[in-house]
Amino acid sequence: MSEAKHTPGPLFVVDTSPKYPGNFRIENNTHGLDGEWEDIYVSFSGYFGSYGPELFAAAPELLEALKHARNQIQHPDQLIDEAIAKAEGRSP
What we know:
Number of helices: 3
Strand content: 15-25%
Order of helices and strands: EEHEHH
Radius of gyration: 16 Å
Number of strands: 3
Strand order of the largest sheet: 1-2-3
Structural class: alpha+beta
Largest sheet: 3 strands, antiparallel
Distance between the termini: 35 Å
């Protein structure tokens, strides 16, 4: 029997404080998730600069969309493969 893959699910942007504009926290909702804590819990915070925290929160969905797009293209650009490898931690 194969073990089910647990993922943290969607990520949300939380404005940490109006006192420090531009600082945000990105986290998921762990309530109701099954699995080991390190597999389901996500929380990081800081200043995200001009990228904005929404880009970071959308990263998991963007990676899946990029993989899907790659599979639909007959001759994908090397840039797509490099971006996927970077997102998966397979490149420096």
